[in-house]
TrEMBL record:
Active site (record annotation): 179 (nucleophile)
Amino acids binding S-adenosyl-L-methionine: 90, 114, 126
UniProt keywords, alphabetically: Methyltransferase, RNA-binding, S-adenosyl-L-methionine, Transferase
Native source species: Roseivivax isoporae LMG 25204
Lineage, top ranks: Bacteria, Pseudomonadati, Pseudomonadota, Alphaproteobacteria, Rhodobacterales
Protein family per UniProt: Belongs to the class I-like SAM-binding methyltransferase superfamily. RsmB/NOP family.
InterPro entries tied to this protein: MeTrfase_RsmB-F_NOP2_cat, MeTrfase_RsmB-F_NOP2_dom, RCMT, SAM-dependent_MTases_sf
Entry GO MF terms: RNA binding; RNA methyltransferase activity
GO BP, one annotated term: RNA methylation
A Pfam family: Methyltr_RsmB-F
Protein name: SAM-dependent MTase RsmB/NOP-type domain-containing protein
Ranges of residues in domain SAM-dependent MTase RsmB/NOP-type: 1-226
Gene3D superfamilies in the cross-refs: Vaccinia Virus protein VP39
Highest taxon, organism lineage: Bacteria
Length: 226
């Protein structure tokens, strides 16, 4: 906070996560600030930070971010582990092109992989979704989402869950996360997974609606019991 204030960037604590700050003045300066350049801050919605904060992570855990994208949650995972290491994968590797540089700036140990195998103590599956939890920022999204689109997304989500489940060590955790508020993508998807995979139990998670403090999201923590 002090580093941002020194550059006339005003912030307030965000109640969603202990790590979250909401910029209240001069937001455009953050990406050019010394605090950002030195890896003290990252740009990320408070909801995403809350998801990572709630994950069942033990020191030294073997962790995979399977749908890493730009790597925001990967870096947050590494921070929770005291710098890493965290394995990062994405179906479209180009999305991770900036991740090594971001990790270096943050002092995080991140291993980009195109063929993760495990076993991992925690796999984060932040799956492609409708993005309905972020419609407060992009309201046109609700008009662009068609029924066929939702069907395709649900099929992709189910396939990802089935792919990563064998990578989780016995007793380990699978975190299924969306930025959606639609039950078909959330509890409905988790219930279907549990029906296909009886060796798993839902052991935690949360569903949060969008508000002034951040986007809506859904997270389910599944534990491999056998």
């Amino acid at each position: 906070e002090a580093a941002l204030a020194a550059e006339d960037i005003a912030v307030r604590r965000n109640p969603r996560a202990a790590t979250a700050l909401t910029v209240t003045a001069n937001a455009r300066r953050v990406a050019q600030s010394a605090a950002y350049r030195d890896g003290l801050v990252e740009l990320q919605d408070a909801g995403s930070q809350a998801v990572i904060e709630a994950l069942p992570l033990a020191p030294g855990a073997r962790v995979l971010d399977y749908c890493a994208g730009g790597g925001g949650k990967t870096l947050a995972l590494a921070a929770r582990l005291g710098g890493g290491p965290v394995a990062a994968h994405d179906a479209h590797p180009r999305r991770m092109s900036d991740l090594p540089a971001r990790a270096a700036r943050a002092g995080a140990r991140v291993a980009v992989t195109d063929a993760p195998r495990g076993p991992y103590d925690l796999v984060l599956a932040d799956v492609p979704c409708s993005g309905s939890g972020a419609w407060r920022r992009a309201p046109d999204g609700k008009w662009r989402l068609l029924p066929d689109d939702l069907d395709r997304l649900r099929a992709t989500q189910a396939a990802i869950l089935d792919t990563v489940a064998p990578m989780v060590a016995p007793g380990g955790h699978l975190a299924y996360v969306t930025c959606s508020v639609l039950p078909e993508e959330n509890a409905g998807q988790v219930d279907a997974f549990a029906a296909r995979h009886p060796g798993w139990e839902v052991t935690g998670g949360s569903a949060v609606l969008p508000d002034a403090d951040g986007d809506g999201f859904y997270a389910a923590h599944l534990t491999r019991v056998r």
